[in-house]
Amino acid sequence: MAKKTNDMEFSEAKKVITVHDIDPNILKDAQKKSKKKKGLALTIILSIISVVYVFPVAAVLVNSFKNNTYVKTDTFALPFNDGMWAGFSNFEKGMTFGNYPFINSVINSLIITLISTALIVFCTSMAAWYIARVNSIFCKIIYYLCVFSMVVPFQMVMYTLSKTADTLKLNTPWTIPIVYLGFGAGLAIFMFVGFVKSIPIEIEEAAAIDGCGPVRTFFQVVFPMLRPTMISVGILEIMWIWNDYLLPYLVLDINEYRTIPIHIQYLKGSYGTVDLGASMALILLSIIPVIVFYLICQKYIIKGVAAGAVKG
Amino acid sequence: MTNDDLNKKTAEPEVKKDAGSSTVSSADISKQFVKSTAAPPPLTKKRRLFNTGSTYTLRKPLRKWFWLFLLPVTAAFVIGFVWPFIQGIYLSFCKFRLTSDATFVGFDNYARIFGDQAFMRSFWYTAVFAVVSLVIINVLAFAVALALTQSIRGSNIFRTVFFMPNLIGGIVLGYLWSMIFDGILSHFGTSILQDSTWGFWGLIIVVSWQQIGYMMIIYIAGLNAIPEDMLEAAKIDGANYFQTLFKVTIPNVMPSITICMFLSLTNGFKLFDQNIALTGGQPITVENGIAIKETELLALNIYNTFYNNQSEFARGMAQSKAVLFFILVAVIGLVQLGITRKKEVQQ
Q1: Same domain, B224 and B87
Q2: Are residues B301 and B342 in the same domain?
Q3: How much is the pTM?
Q4: pLDDT of A21 strictly over 60
């Protein structure tokens, strides 16, 4: 479809600009020269911007090794002066900081993110296939409600959702995935239905003729084909749930269960009296897993984000 | 295999390709479909939405498995979205402190909102913030995407670096940047919590730093989809760089531009985590006896009305604010959907 417009634009451009006679060799040489120059200049500019981009993270790294008093006054100094270097004491302090062990927050975050993502990918892919294939009125209602839920901001349901989750005892890391499945189903269903539509039904019919029931058809024929979309959906959900603050903050029992964002926000809450060196150490510890995950799955992450954005 | 079946098979791919992107054009497509098959299957309304053949053999047996395929998601969806949403709409017409003690008061809450100066102020503040961040993010992201599609060395490394902040959560980002801003501002005897100008631009810097990489990815995808021969043709026709940019490149990435603009606009309106972590709405000034948090965006204002306001009307008001907030965001989303749909139809 895009090609059509391109052709149209192209023919219009042809009419406006008359074709000049240029010796193709001259043109090529000039192109080569300018490309090299432009390339170098661009590389330098982009390198400078990259340094600016990495700087905040580097600043956290540096400051996590400084003694508390120097973080605010000498934020941008390297900590190799006498008295400024704190070694790993900030990290040791940070682990028990804020009346809650940091390691528990990490474990809670991991549990919630992994279970929720697995649950969402598994359940919504099944539901999406059912919706796209059975296509009854009820399916359509569910589908459009899901699309609708994508534009509803969390503030709209935050109070009632946290109360509902409380009464149903969904306030532990083991049960909160159900809340995530409900609130996060929209995008996942939307993306999966979009993909299922592009699978030729002949494949499934062939399986049916060969004697597969619906369940077997799904798990042995459709499920493997959904893999690329599953990765995209999984990545988007992981990014959302790992970093989510307000939903777990309102739903979980905060005195017993905290996630990393909640833990960090609790430090911030007592800003001023807080040990800044130790908080920097915690920030660093919460960024490292994210960056490692990013560097390993970079290809999938960028693909997933592009897919999610174009559809959402 | 009969002749009909063969015909149907050859026609199928064409139909699928187009029907996915818009429902409007499916009518034309079904005409094509009718022409190409010798014996057209009955065209019911159902076919238009999902393009499933009505002869699909698995439909009936699949329906028996409703409880396995659809029920879990439906149940969770009702718990996590449908019921809270309906209850939320109802409570916006009530006076309540808990969901159990709600008394119906009609439109009182909504009337009260328009007298709430802090809310009106935070609405305009959010609107300005959203538009400013939209312009900055999109201009910079487009520039970076253009630079990265010029086949320069190390463009993959740059892409990796620019996208990185996206994975760090809003709360951590806010805290991280408040350390940096305070490190700079302490030399000038102020801090981000004291100066609302810095609060505003600080927040702009944080969201730009985070979102430029995201928008850049979408723009790169758009730029890479422009056929090479078109750019070459423009060059041969003697178009200079800016002519090519404005007459060929930009018209061709219009879909990406629309998506990015709306994404950054809704992100701007919905921003919460970065706001609460960076300034928390501070500094607070008192105007006409009302405390106003100067850097408080809409989402944070709603949150504070819910949980940090002891007035007996507070929760009802907060819920009706949330309803208005939802309508605002939904309208932006629907306009976006309308525009992208229209574009698709034209193409």
Answers
A1: no
A2: yes
A3: 0.80
A4: no
Using left for φ > 0, alpha for ψ between -120 and 50, and beta otherwise, residue B76 falls in alpha
The nearest alpha carbon in chain B to A194 belongs to B20
Q: Show Cβ contacts of residue B166 under 8 Å, excluding neighbours closer than 6 positions.
A: A239, A305, B210, B211, B213, B214
Q: Residue B145 has which token pair?
A: 């995407």
Claim to verify: residue B162 and residue B309 sit in the same structural domain:
yes
Q: Is residue A68 packed enough to be buried (19+ CB in 10 Å), middle (13-18) or exposed (0-12)?
A: middle
Cross-chain residue pair B73–A127, CB shorter than 8 Å: yes
| Option in B166, B167, B239 nearest A17 (CB) | B239
Q: Identify all chain A residues contacting B248, using CB atoms and an 8 Å cutoff.
A: 9, 13
- CATH code where residue B155 lies: 1.10.3720.10
| Cβ contact, residue pair B73, A126, below 8 Å | yes
Q: What is the pLDDT of residue B186?
A: 80
CATH of A96-274, one of 3.40.630.10, 3.40.30.10, 3.40.50.1980, 1.10.3720.10: 1.10.3720.10
Residue B104 pairs in a beta bridge with B94
From A75, A146, A189, residue closest to B180, measured CB to CB = A75
pLDDT band at B8 (very low <50, low <70, confident <90, very high): very low
B199 and B252 housed in the same domain:
yes
CB pairs under 8 A between A and B: 357
CB A285 within 8 A of CB A102: yes
In terms of CA atoms, which chain B residue is nearest residue A36? B152
pLDDT, tens digit, 9 for 90 and up, residues A156-210: 999 999 999 988 988 888 999 999 999 888 889 988 998 898 888 888 888 888 8
Q: Could you give the number of structural domains in chain B?
A: 3
B296-311: average pLDDT:
87
Confidence check: pLDDT of B136 > 60 = yes
Tokens of B241: 């760089």
Share of chain B above pLDDT 90, in %: 23
What type of residue sits at position B84?
P
Q: What is the mean pLDDT of chain B?
A: 79
In this complex, is the C-beta atom of B323 within 8 Å of any C-beta atom belonging to chain A?
yes
Q: Where are the domains of chain A?
A: 96-274
Distance, CA of A223 to CA of A272 (rounded, Å): 53
How far apart are the C-alpha atoms of B218 and A304, rounded to whole Å? 11
Model confidence at A78: pLDDT above 60? yes
Q: What is the pLDDT of residue B65?
A: 83
> Is B274 found in the same domain as B163?
yes
Window B:22-41, CB contacts with A under 8 Å: none
Q: How far is CA A30 from CA A93, B146, B275, in A?
A: 62, 21, 50
| Cα distance between residue B59 and residue B230, in whole Å | 46
The DSSP code for A275 is: -
A39, A213, A283 ranked by CB distance to B176: nearest: A283
Task: Tell me: do B276 and B311 sit in the same domain.
Answer: yes
The tokens for A54 are 């990495």
Chain A positions touching B81 (Cβ under 8 A) are 145, 149, 152, 157, 182-183, 185-186
Say whether both B83 and B124 belong to one domain.
no
Q: What SS3 state is found at A198?
A: coil
Tracing tokens 């999109």 back to the chain, one arrives at B138
Write out the residue range of the structural domain in which residue B27 sits. Answer: 3-61
For A90-104, B46-60, B132-146, B250-264, which range has the lowest pLDDT when averaged over its residues?
A: B46-60
Give A-chain residues touching B166 at CB under 8 angstroms.
239, 305
Strands B290-293 and B103-104: unpaired
> Which residues of chain A neighbour B179 with C-beta distances below 8 Å?
59-60, 63, 71, 75, 276, 280
- pLDDT tens digits, B288-298: 777 778 888 99
Give the orientation angle of helix B196-224 with respect to helix B254-270, to 10 degrees.
Answer: 150
